[in-house]
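As practice, study what follows.
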Amino acid sequence: MKRAATITLALVLGLALTVSMASGADKKYSGFLEGYYQNLQPGPEGGVKERWLKPGVDFNKYKKIMLDSAVFFFSDESAYKGIDPQDMKDLADGLNKAVVTAVKDKSIFVSEPGPDVVRIRFAITGLKQNKPGVSAVTSVIPIGLAISLVKKGAGGSWSGSGATSMEVMVLDTMTNDVIAAAVDERTAGFTDRFSKWGSADEAFKFWAERLKKFVEDVEAVSK
């Protein structure tokens, strides 16, 4: 990535979880999965938090992937929802690259539909940021800057508060039918683990590996 910002660090490294943990609280979703939230059921042990698989689908027939560029959603509770377009592109490019790297050994990436091709759409949701001050520096912090600066509120404007969540939609490219959907969120030990990481690349790898795990679990259903 050629350019990054304190805002980028806050979004990816600060991480903000807005999907409520169990214990009776109402869950909050981004709207990315549209009407499929009502179909979600608890995911498998070690896998995504919630998922839905269309009954009768043979997931093993899909050998190739069309991957949509990552989408990012701000939390309704975010004090500020603006972001520089280049920063957003940097975020998406970095996460897309991490996903391709994580899954490439098991799948072939293509750009055209086919009978053995699924389309994967995914979003990182619940991004939360504080409103920047007029004099805040927001466009010169290197993307590899240590996470400690974010935790301290680098530039006096941005701070993290938890972890993002991920939403995934899988479609058959011939029919455009949605055949799977999922929502994932941090585990109990995620914050401790993440605090030891020093770059946005590690955050990208985390969510890429979670997406890979979802794909593997889905394939296992049809075996």
The longest strand covers residues 117-127. The chain has a mean pLDDT of 71.
